[in-house]
Design goal:
The protein is α/β, with parallel strands linked by helices and 264 residues long. It is built from ten helices and five strands. It has a five-stranded mixed β-sheet. Helix 7 links the parallel strand 4 and strand 5. Helix 3 packs across helix 4 and helix 6 packs across helix 7.
C-alpha cells in the first residue's frame, strides 16, 4: 500500500516529472502569485537540496492550462442561489471573451459578509467562457439561457452597462423576470468620478504634473518617488493609488543629500 508521500513522489502518468513537482509548481503560481519563469528559477535554486528536477516554464504553463481546462469543463453544481458576474474582455483582434463567474449567495452570507471582506478568486467559480466574434445582446442572452439550463437560474446578475451586455441581460430577463440585474458598483463609481473630474482643471493639472514628475524621475536616483503609472484605459478605477501616493509624499519629510551636496 502506498503512503501519501510515495504517491506524491510517483511520476505522473504520461509525464516526466513527479506529482509532487507538478503540485509544488502549480501552488507557487496559484497561491503565491509567482511567475512561470520565477518558479523555474526557484527549482534551480534548490536543485542541490532536493531531487525534484527542474521543470521549464513552458511545462508549468501547460500544467496550469490543463488545470484551467478542467475547471472550465467540469460539471458545475446545480443551485438556486447563484449570483452571476458577467463581463466582456477588452477586444483584441476580431474576438472578445464573454466571462461568466458565479458565487453562491449562501457563501456570501456565511463567509464573505461576516468577515466584511471582498471576494477572492478562491470564492468564485468560472461558469462559462465563450470566445465570440459578435457580442450582440441576442447572443449574450442565448449564452445566459444555456448556462441557466446547466447550473440553475441565478438570483442576481452583476455587470456593467455596456450596450451589448445590458441588452443581453434585459432580453434574458424577459424569460426570467425575477432575476435582479445589478449595475457593477466599481463601474458605477468610476463613471461618477469621471463625470466629476474630467472637466476639473485642478485634477487635470494634477494628472499632468504626475506624468511630468514620472518622466523627470524615472532615470534618476529618486525614481523610487515616482508616482504609480496610470492605465491607458479604466484610469478612473484606480484613482486612490495616485491620490494616496501624493498624500504620502506630501506627509514625508524629504531631505536627501546627493553626491554633489545638493539637497532634494
Amino acid at each position: 500500500m502506498q503512503t501519501s508521500g510515495q504517491a506524491l513522489n510517483k511520476v505522473a502518468k504520461g509525464h516526466h516529472y513527479s506529482v509532487e513537482t507538478i503540485q509544488i509548481s502549480l501552488e507557487q503560481v496559484i497561491k503565491c502569485g509567482s511567475s512561470l519563469r520565477g518558479v523555474e528559477k526557484t527549482f534551480e535554486l534548490y536543485a542541490d537540496f532536493c531531487n525534484q528536477g527542474t521543470p521549464s516554464f513552458s511545462s508549468i504553463r501547460k500544467w496550469l492550462g490543463r488545470i484551467g481546462l478542467y475547471e472550465l469543463n467540469r460539471e458545475k453544481e446545480y443551485r438556486s442561489d447563484w449570483i452571476f458576474i458577467v463581463d466582456l474582455t477588452v477586444e483584441l483582434g476580431a474576438e472578445k471573451a464573454l466571462v461568466i463567474l458565479g458565487v453562491p449567495q449562501q457563501l456570501l452570507e456565511s463567509e464573505i459578509f461576516p468577515l466584511k471582506r471582498g471576494l477572492g478568486h478562491q470564492d468564485i467559480e468560472l461558469l462559462a467562457l465563450e470566445i465570440m466574434y459578435s457580442t450582440k445582446g441576442e447572443y449574450i442572452s442565448q449564452k445566459l439561457s444555456e448556462l441557466t439550463s446547466k447550473v440553475g437560474r441565478p438570483l442576481q446578475i452583476i455587470a456593467d452597462r455596456g450596450s451589448d451586455i445590458q441588452k443581453g441581460i434585459k432580453l434574458y430577463q424577459e424569460n426570467y423576470p425575477e432575476v435582479i440585474y445589478t449595475y457593477d458598483v466599481t463601474h458605477a463609481m468610476a463613471l461618477l468620478l469621471k463625470h466629476e473630474l474630467v472637466a476639473d482643471e485642478k485634477y487635470q493639472s494634477f494628472i499632468e504634473q504626475c506624468t511630468r514628475c514620472r518622466q523627470q524621475l524615472q532615470q534618476t536616483e529618486l525614481s523610487f518617488l515616482s508616482p504609480p503609472s496610470q492605465r491607458s484605459q479604466c484610469r478612473y478605477f484606480n484613482i486612490e493609488r495616485l491620490i494616496n501616493w501624493a498624500i504620502k509624499l506630501l506627509d514625508s519629510p524629504i531631505d536627501i543629500q546627493g553626491r554633489t551636496g545638493t539637497k532634494y
